[in-house]
Backbone:
């Protein structure tokens, strides 16, 4: 039987229904071509937290909770997320994720590009099963935002001249767009009122922003074993996230991040110095404060919704996003 | 002003309306991110034959010729085609196409993967503008078939044990699926009868098969200057297409293709021997015969449609697909 970590504890009223999303995702593995079959098996084996599909279903609880429409959107969002990770790992040349080798580490880059395309196609097919052209359109726009966000990040790599505004725009596209589509899409499918759709859209966006900021913090402070990838990956790849941005802002003179970026030799030593400086300087706390502020905005947004198990769960998820260690 | 090669001569009644498709494709270039803007400019600068959008519009002439719905599908199909070429060039490591450097040759592979994703997203957005969930679903299924076809081809590379049946399946996915969606989608949007949709679907499939077979022949016999890429690329990349398959079938003993595939040294010499053998052995004619047979099937399929300029143009396109030299 398929199980999902914390499904019943964290995701409250929709925890058990997530199994249906899981089954639908599993069904996409059944293909004729043996090579594709093997690749899909690998790509879909790493079960994540399923936070995004949970948000789809939870948003659906505020209207007509029709699983025939909500479950395909949940599967679509998770597949879209998976496809984008597959391509990101090719783009970044990452060889491990969640403690497992990436697809590009096992197969080659070329095949992995096509695998990602196939999973994108699957996501596109899933979203049409919702029967909603409006939500299908949302899906397409989200894919655009996610890809622009990734390109924006690549363009900003090794550039310490970008500001926090630019960072927020990048993670808005790269991460928050998909969270927004999860909650907005779920609400639209459930036929929620415009005010409810707005509330859930704002919640999804703010939670997505907090989620990514915490992700970026964990790259400095996390537990390497739990994360399943080396810490400090962002700085190593020239990706200047919120903690580094705060640090550069606060210590403009002879900054260790700056020194690392300019270093032509002893790069690993300079990297470790920069990581240590960031960890010890209080900018981690400032970054966490910003994530907390986003969670507060998320909570505020959904306050207009009627009290329910679903609403309580949205609040719980806000705290979880801040407290998670992986 | 935007112009399209042979638009008015080859595409008859829809030639002028193709400008609208062109304008819609152009509109996707207007993005904020300067890097993405540059990449899109490059990727969309090479105007192809626009055969696929022409087939969308032509199919639409057999019903309610509503350009508000047909033009977005035409743009969608061309963008999908472009996105798949962008990824194929990354996958194959190709550095030139149509006489111009590929995106991956100018930008890097990583950025080019994201560029392809962005163009896919644009195609997905365009198809929702048709207002038809049925056609949007067709789009998603097509993307799946195209990607499987490409993966199938990659899996079959350097393998001379595959038969013609396998080749036809591969090009069915890789190429004919998109032609099928062009004609079927156009017919569905125009509200054609089921028999008409069937006829146009069969036409699209058969024309797509003929188109790819001729493409594979041109890789042996074409004019390098016109093609804008070196001849013999398929065999060089281990891609065994119809002419090579016929040759292997007819000359099972000490076959030059076989020798080239097994060669550990003098590979370029062995490649040239294989290319010459294929060009001189009559298998090019046999391959062309198969393409002609597909065009005959395409013509047969649309015979049931009422006589019109549109129908005449479909017949003209059949001849063009066989006679084209690029």
Residues:
């Amino acid at each position: 039987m398929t199980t999902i970590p914390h499904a019943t504890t964290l995701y409250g009223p929709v925890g058990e229904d997530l199994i249906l999303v899981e089954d639908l995702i599993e069904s996409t593995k059944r293909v004729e071509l043996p090579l594709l079959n093997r690749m899909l098996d690998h790509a879909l084996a790493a079960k994540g937290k399923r936070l995004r599909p949970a948000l789809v279903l939870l948003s659906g609880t505020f209207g007509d909770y029709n699983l025939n429409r909500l479950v395909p959107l949940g599967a679509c969002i998770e597949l879209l997320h998976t496809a984008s990770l597959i391509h990101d790992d090719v783009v970044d040349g990452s060889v491990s994720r969640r403690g497992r080798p990436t697809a590009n580490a096992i197969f080659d880059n070329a095949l992995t590009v096509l695998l990602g395309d196939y999973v994108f196609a699957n996501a596109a097919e899933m979203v049409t099963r919702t029967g909603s052209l409006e939500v299908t359109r949302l899906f397409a726009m989200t894919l655009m935002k996610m890809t622009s966000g990734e390109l924006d990040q690549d363009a900003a790599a090794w550039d310490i001249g970008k500001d926090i505004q630019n960072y927020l725009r990048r993670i808005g596209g790269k991460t928050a767009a998909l969270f927004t589509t999860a909650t907005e899409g779920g609400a639209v499918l459930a036929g929620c009122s415009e005010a409810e759709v707005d509330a859930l859209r704002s919640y999804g966006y703010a939670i997505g922003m907090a989620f990514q900021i915490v992700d970026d913090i964990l790259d400095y402070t996390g537990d390497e074993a739990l994360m399943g990838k080396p810490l400090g990956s962002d700085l190593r790849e020239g990706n200047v996230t919120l903690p580094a941005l705060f640090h550069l802002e606060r210590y403009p003179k002879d900054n260790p991040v700056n020194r690392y970026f300019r270093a032509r030799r002893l790069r690993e030593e300079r990297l470790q110095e920069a990581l240590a400086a960031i960890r010890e300087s209080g900018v981690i706390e400032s970054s966490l404060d910003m994530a907390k502020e986003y969670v507060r905005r998320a909570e505020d947004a959904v306050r207009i919704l009627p009290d329910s198990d679903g609403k309580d769960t949205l609040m719980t998820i806000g705290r979880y996003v801040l407290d998670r260690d992986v």
Summary: Chain B has one domain: 13-306+317-323. Chain B touches chain A through 43 residues (CB under 8 Å). The beta strands of chain B are 96-97, 100-101.
